[in-house]
Write a structure and sequence with these properties.
The protein has 259 residues and is an alpha+beta fold. The protein contains six helices and 16 strands. The chain folds into two domains: 152 residues, Roll (2,3-Dihydroxybiphenyl 1,2-Dioxygenase, domain 1); 98 residues, Roll (2,3-Dihydroxybiphenyl 1,2-Dioxygenase, domain 1), CATH 3.10.180.10.
Length: 259
């Protein structure tokens, strides 16, 4: 089974100025707005990074799951990790593995050839994990959450090139990596600061709480072409700037120069 990193969803109290800051600092473009998230009392915007996606959602109604998550984690930050697998059997395998570990399916749906499955964050002791498949099996092409294929006209690579990894803070990184690895059928690997699950096009990293906000999606790895431009734009937005990352929307963006 191949598992691919495809989309990272952040949650914010308000979409603006978050979307403006992200597009300006990272040199990426808005590519899609999904009115379907309204059923959850949300609004959203997606941006494309290579053939992967960065999404921000914000509550527009009271008493939403996203609003409660914002309160629980003390502000804007990571919310949902979205992966793609090759086939229905792969998604079913993840569902069966999750069930054996008493991890519930929080929500699932289908839209034409696209099938969505979200695993319950309470059972994962972390962020929500969405594992999807599409019978067209394009992992760099059609993506229904971004409107199909029209996102391709919004790809830019002069500043930011690729989204290659996700950092997950965990109370017990070893146990969380083992649980997520067992669901995905991937053996965790020990690294300097925690554990990693290698994906076909990137990795998931599990580390200890680094900011006092508890378990959750805490960072995104980016390959960039113009780190200096990103840092300069981040400074103008009054973003947090560190040696190896900047912080926007309560999320650490780790910057690696393209070779």
């Amino acid at each position: 089974m191949g598992m691919y990193l495809r989309q990272v969803c952040l949650v914010a109290h308000k979409l603006e100025p978050v979307i403006t800051d992200l597009t300006r600092v990272l040199g990426i473009e808005r590519c899609h707005v999904d009115p379907g998230v309204g059923r959850w009392g949300l609004e959203n915007t997606l941006m494309t990074i290579g053939s992967n996606f960065l999404e921000v959602v914000a509550p527009v109604e009271a008493n939403t799951a996203a609003g409660r998550y914002l309160a629980r984690r003390g502000g804007d930050g990571g919310y949902i990790l979205v992966c793609q697998v090759d086939a229905a059997a792969d998604q079913q395998g993840c569902r069966d593995n999750a069930a054996r570990l008493d991890v519930r399916v929080a929500y699932e749906s289908s839209r034409g050839s696209y099938y969505l499955m979200q695993l319950h964050p309470a059972d994962l002791h972390n962020a929500m994990w969405e594992i999807d498949w599409d019978d067209r099996a394009e992992v760099t092409g059609v993506w229904e959450p971004a409107g199909g294929r029209q996102w391709q006209q919004h790809v830019r690579d002069d500043v930011t090139v690729e989204l290659t990894g996700v950092e997950m803070q965990a109370d017990d990184p070893a146990a969380t990596a083992q649980q997520w690895g067992a669901i995905a059928g991937i053996q965790p690997e020990a690294v300097t600061d925690g554990y990693r699950l290698p994906l076909v096009n990137g990795e998931l990293r599990f580390v200890r709480d680094q900011d006092g906000r508890g378990a959750g999606l805490s960072g995104v790895d980016l390959v960039v072409r113009d780190r200096a431009a990103i840092v300069a734009a981040a400074r103008e937005c009054n973003a947090v700037i560190a040696a190896d990352h900047i912080e926007l929307c309560g999320t650490r963006f780790y910057l690696t120069e393209a070779v």
